[in-house]
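Slide 14.
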Amino acid sequence: MESSRSAAAGSTRERIIAAASRLLAEGGREAVSTRAVSAAAGVQAPAIYRLFGDKQGLLDAVASHGLAEYVASKAHREPGPDPVEDLRRGFDQNVEFGLANPAVYALMASDPRPGVVSPAYEAGLEVLAKLVSRIAEAGRLRVAEHLATQLITSAGRGTTLTLIALPEDQRDPALIHAAREAVVAAITTDAPVAASPGPAAAAVTLRAVLPQTTALTASERSLLTEWLDRIADDGTPGQA
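Slide 15: predicted structure.
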C-alpha cells in the first residue's frame, strides 16, 4: 500500500514538472503560474503546494530536472586523451545546451540565491571539478583547482546568457571561441609543467595527485593539502 502511494506521488510529481517545463519553454517564467500548471498537469493546486512547497520550489524542481538531464548526458561520456580538449568540448556543450533550452538555462543561471545550491547544479560542478582535476594531474593547470572551476563556470554562464539575450541572427559564434580560449589561456599551460615549474604550479599538480598516495596518514594528508592550497593561491595573479 505504501509503495503504491509513493509511486502515485512520483507519477504526479513527474507530470507536474513536465507540464511546468512545457509552459516555461513556451512562455517563459511568467507562464508558470500555479493555476496554469495545475490545469496543464491535470491536478489540483494543493498537490503542487504539497509536493513543492510553493512556486519557487516548483521552479527549482524544473531547473534541477533540466540540468540533471544535461549532467547525466555528460557524466557518462568517455574522457579523451587530452583533458584540455575535453574542457573546450565541455564549454561548447554548455553553451549549446543553453541555446537549445534558453528558458531553463536562464532560470537556473540567472537567479542565484546565497547558500542555496540545487543537487543537480552541485552534480554539474562535480563533473567540472573532475575535469579540472585531470588537467591538474597532467601538469597543465596554472591556478588552483577551485579558482579554475569558478572561472570556467563564470565564463560559460556569462557567454551563454549573453547569446540567449541576443536575436538569433546576431549571435556570433566567435564570442564562444573567444571566451573559451580566454579561459583556457588563463588557467592552463601549453604543455606539461616543466622541470622547474615554480612553487605554485608544482603545488597545483601535487595537490591533484595527492589522493593517489598511501604514504601519509589522514591527518598528514589533510595538513599537506592545506599547505598546497595556500602555495597555489599565493601564486595566483591578484593574490597576495
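Speaker note: The CA atoms of residues 155 and 182 lie 9 Å apart.
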